[in-house]
Amino acid sequence: MWKQLFRLHSSSSDSTPPFGYTKIPASEFNYNLGTFTISDSYPCIHIMGSHIKAWVYTEYGNIEEILKFDPNVAIPDIKEDQVLIKVVAAALNPVDNLRALGYFKDTDSPLPAAPGNDVAGVVVRVGSKVTKFKIGDEVYGDINELAVNHPKTIGSLAEYTTAEEKVLAHKPSNLSFIEAASLPVVILTAYLGLERVGFSAGKSILVLGGSGGVGTLVIQLAKHVFGASKVAATASTPKLELLRSLGADLPIDYTTDNFEELSEKFDVVYDTIGQSDKALKAIKEGGKVVTIVGPATPPAIQFFLTADGAVLEKLQPYLESGKVKPVLDPKSPFPFSQTVEAYAYLKTNRAIGKVVIHPIP
User: Tens of pLDDT along 319-350?
Assistant: First the structure.
């Protein structure tokens, strides 16, 4: 459990801590500009300052060129339905690159902006209408209900960020912050995308891009949560064993085989790579294709994520039991100082699972 602690800012012995906090002598802590300190032996919450460190950009362009470290960003205010989170770990997503390029300029929030959707951290402040969380709770989630519609100005690539109560969930107790940060966008996209096409027990599925962030979760959810009769998935040769370990019955090496030419057809094809035209050739009569990379070739269904903390809570038993596991790229985590390098790596499309940033100051 996280202890709620109050660091004395003066030498006065009669300083009164806020309600619910324990007064601890300043000498017991390594005080660092009023920030939040995480320690395996003695985790604690410090009263924060008014400015934070973050990665921001002030104009649109290639994210690895425009993203700059800013040590003096104003800490974001919270609304009555929001919490303020001390970010412990954050994960990167392709949508971050699209936003930086200005693809959603008409519905974006004003620049400058700090990117980042996936977060895992600790609640340090709660809005007046928040009932689900309290100070000290370990949480995770996708902080933007709709990534392309007025996303947070200060995202998760900052010391602190805000999020509505409804998009967050309590962090599964068996997962590290690094593991938890890797999950929200991809597990929600995988689960809700499967729901969107009515996937259910006994059906077969082909996953295009099975070793990516979303693909690794689609395989696991289809197999271990929805009860698929058969799971096929595509990847390059070195990644086929990973697909098997996640639950794929039929790993397909896309470097040697064309999935659309297989004699076997599937009830559902989940396309994470933008090949909905070919995917339509791989479904049974009456089958469905769902894609997360547009434009979708009709009648394929393009899926857009709406973040939902209730779904994360619903999936918590599968995560805590180990039936569904986070998949981290071997290079993860990247330190906060190498966020630009992490984005450059993400753009190579060679990442396995998710790219995570940790620690965050």
Answer: 999 999 999 999 999 999 999 999 999 999 99
DSSP 183: S
3 token code pair = 């202890």
- Output 243 or 15, whichever has higher pLDDT: 243
- Sequence-ordered alpha helix ranges (H) in 83-227: 94-100, 177-181, 184-196, 213-224
- How far, in whole angstroms, is CA 155 from its chain's centroid? 12
C-alpha 130/C-alpha 127 separation (Å) is: 5
Q: How would you label 109-141 residue by residue, b for 16+ Cβ within 10 Å and e otherwise?
A: beebbbbbbbbbbbbbbbbeebebbebbbbbbb
> What is the pairing mode between strands 118-126 and 138-142?
antiparallel
Distance CA 142, CA 155 (A): 10
Mean pLDDT for 287-305 is 98
Amino acid letter, residue 334? F
Helix and strand numbers, DSSP H then E, in the chain: 9, 16
Closest CA to 354 of 189, 188, 214, 245: 214
pLDDT bin (cut points 50, 70, 90) of residue 142 is very high
